[in-house]
Amino acid sequence: KSKTVIHVHVISMLRLISYETLKRAAIYGAVISVSGCSVLYYLLQRKLASSGYYIKTVEALKHDQTAVRMLGDPIRIQALKLNDRRNHITTHHAQVLIPVSGTKSA
């Protein structure tokens, strides 16, 4: 008998909330979720780009005359694509594809 009372109470509460209010809450929730995911993705990119092995790799590439000759000067480092399946990072090994371009890149 108590389950029926609770069930009826919940249904009567839902009737008080308009469809427009529910729709607005769903839209705001979606915007907040997408924004949060975007910020997290950006912060992960920034953290990875500030790591020692990333900085050393980028500097080595910029000083490699063969790479500069092939890509064109200046070499530009693009945003990391964290969802690339070829990226692997463990405590002992890191393999990260760093997108680069230069004046000769097409």
Would you kindly provide a written description of the structure presented here, covering whatever features stand out?
By secondary structure, this protein is mainly α. 61% of the residues lie in helices and 8% in strands.
Quick recap:
The protein has 106 residues and is mainly alpha-helical.
Keywords:
106 residues, 8% strand, 61% helix, two-stranded antiparallel sheet, 4 helices
How would a textbook summarize the main sheet? 2 strands, antiparallel
Shape: elongated
Count of helix runs: 4
Structural class designation:
mainly alpha
- Unreliable runs, pLDDT <50, ≥5 residues? none
Query: What is the alpha-carbon Rg in Å?
Result: 25 Å
Number of strands: 4
End-to-end Cα distance? 73 Å
What is the string of helix and strand elements? HHHHEEEE
Order of strands across the widest beta sheet? Answer: 1-4
Helix content: 55-70%
Query: What integer is the average pLDDT?
Result: 83
Determine the strand fraction and express it as a percent band: 5-15%
